[in-house]
Amino acid sequence: MINPKTLHPATLAAQALGATDASTGAVVLPIHTATTFLRDPDNQYRRGRGYGRADNPSYDQPQALLTALEGGAATLLFSSGMAAAAAVFQSLPRDSHVVAPQVMYWGLRSWLKNFAEAWGIAVDFVDATSLDALRRVVRPDRTRLIWIETPANPLWSVTDIAGSAEIAHSAGALLAVDSTAATPVLTRPLALEADLVMHSATKYLNGHSDVIAGTLTTAREDAFWARLRTARSSGGAILGSFEAYLLLRGMRTLFPRVERACRSAQQIAEALSQNPRVLDVLYPGLPRHPGHAVAARQMTGGFGGMLSMRVRGGAEAAIAAAARVEIWKRATSLGGVESLIEHRASVEGADSPAPPDLLRLSVGIEDPGDLIADLESALGG
Predict the structure, then answer these.
(1) Distance set, CA 263 to CA 274, 302, 303, 368 (Å)
(2) What is the mean pLDDT of the chain?
(3) Of the residues 109, 203, 257, 310, which is catalytic?
(4) Whole-angstrom Cα distance, residue 329 to residue 90?
(5) What angle do CA 65, 70, 76 make, to 5 degrees?
(6) Domains in the chain, ordered, with CATH?
(7) What is the value of pTM for the model shown?
(8) Is 283 one of the catalytic residues?
(9) What pairs with residue 125 in β-bridges?
(10) From the candidates 55, 160, 178, 195, which is the catalytic residue?
C-alpha cells in the first residue's frame, strides 16, 4: 500500500492506493462473492467478517480510495445514490427539520416530497445559491440537516459550501453535499467544513454506464455515522461484489476522464454561447454564470463536464434538435465516457425547475470538435 498523504490524488486513484493481492501478487484485487464467513472455534469473528450484508471484502478498497480522495474519515458503499441519500434522511431523529435546494436531483426531490413526512421529517426547499435564503429557513431548535447539491442538476447552479457549513453548524445541524457533478477531482466538500459527501457513484466515479452505486463519506466517525452503518446493513441497501469491483476499476481512470470532460465542456459551452439558435448556456465555467465566482473559489482544475443549453423556439425546437444528433446519445444519466443529451422537463414532470426549452448535456471523452459539430448540425436542422 502506498502512503496517501505523500502522493497526488491522481496517483492514488490510478493505483487504487497501490493495493495488490498478497497471495498471488496480482495487481488487480480479487472479487469476493462469499455471503458468510467462518467463526473461530470459540465462536468469535476475529478476522472481522461475519455476514455479507454487514460488510464485504470487495468494499474495502473502493471505500478506502474514496475516503482518501475526499480527505474523510470513512466511506460506505450503497446500492445506488438514492439509497445513500435516503439513508441520511432516514437516520435523522423523528420530528427533524431539514433544508434542501429547490434545484437538485429530481429523484431525491421527489422522494423528499413523497416520503419525508412519513419518516417524521419536515422539509423546506429554498434557493440554495443564496446564503441569506438558507439562513432564513433554518430553525435552530429543530433543523438537523442542510442538504445541498453543487453544481446542481440540471441548471448547474452553485452553492457556497463553506458558507452553508457555517449556517448549518451555527444551528447545530449537519451539512451534507451531493458532489456527484463535481467529483473529488474538482471539489472536496469536507475540506470546506461539510460533514457528509454523497455521490451517485453510477456517474463519474464509475464512469462507464455499467454500474448503479452510491457512496457516503464522512468527516468523522461519530454516532450519526454509526447510525448510517446500521441503516445500510439493516436496510439491505448493499452493493454486489462484482459491482464493487467495477466501481474500483472505474475510479482508477477518474482523473483523466473528468479532466478531459471539463476541457471539452468549457469548449462546448463557449461555442454554444456564440450560436444564434441557443438562447442561453448554463455552465459555471462561463464568467457570466451567476455562480462563476463561487465555483472558481471552491472548484479546482475545471468546472465539470455538465452543462445545459436553452434552445430558441421552446420545447418543440429543443426536442427536435435532440432528435437530430448523431454522436450524442439521447439517454438519461451522466458522467460516462459517452456524451449524453436529454430534454429534462419531459423526464422530471410538471414541478421541474428545468425550462421547457432546456437540453442537458453530459460531456464524455470524445473529440470536442466532433461533439460541437454534431450539436451545431442538430441545432441548424
Answers:
(1) 18, 7, 9, 9
(2) 96
(3) 203
(4) 35
(5) 60
(6) 9-251 (3.40.640.10), 254-380 (3.90.1150.10)
(7) 0.96
(8) no
(9) 100
(10) 178
